[in-house]
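Hi Prof. W.,

I finally got the Macrophage migration inhibitory factor homolog prediction working! I wasn't sure whether to trim anything, so I left the full sequence exactly as given:
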Amino acid sequence: MPCLNVSTNVNLDGVDTSAVLADASSAVATIIGKPEAYVMVVLKGSVPMAFGGTQEPAAYGELVSIGGLSPDVNKKLSAGIAAILESKLSIPKSRFYLKFHDSKRSDFGWNGTTF
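And this is what came out:
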C-alpha cells in the first residue's frame, strides 16, 4: 500500500502528468517490491513553496508504506523519484526533499477497514 504524495511549485498545466504518475508508481512498486496494484501516487502542482530562499522549481514528497522501507531502499527511492521529477518536471535533484514513513498495518485504512 505504498502512497507517494508529491507537492511542487511547478505549474502542471500542459505537463503530461500521466507519465509522471506512471513512472513514479512503477518506480515505487519495483524498488519497494510491492504489487503496483496497491501503489498510490498523488501529484499536486502550483503549491506556493520556497527552498533555499528562492521560489525556483522545487518539490516535497512523503512516502508511506507498510514495511518494505530500509536505509538502502530509501536511498534508491530518493534517487528514483528525484530522477523522474528532474526529467519530467525540470526540478533539480538538489531541490527535492522526500520523507519516509514506515506505518503499522493498523494505522492505514483501505476498503472500509485497516490493513
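Strands lie at 3-8, 40-44, 59-65, 96-102, 109-110, 113-114. Does that look reasonable to you?

Thanks,
D.
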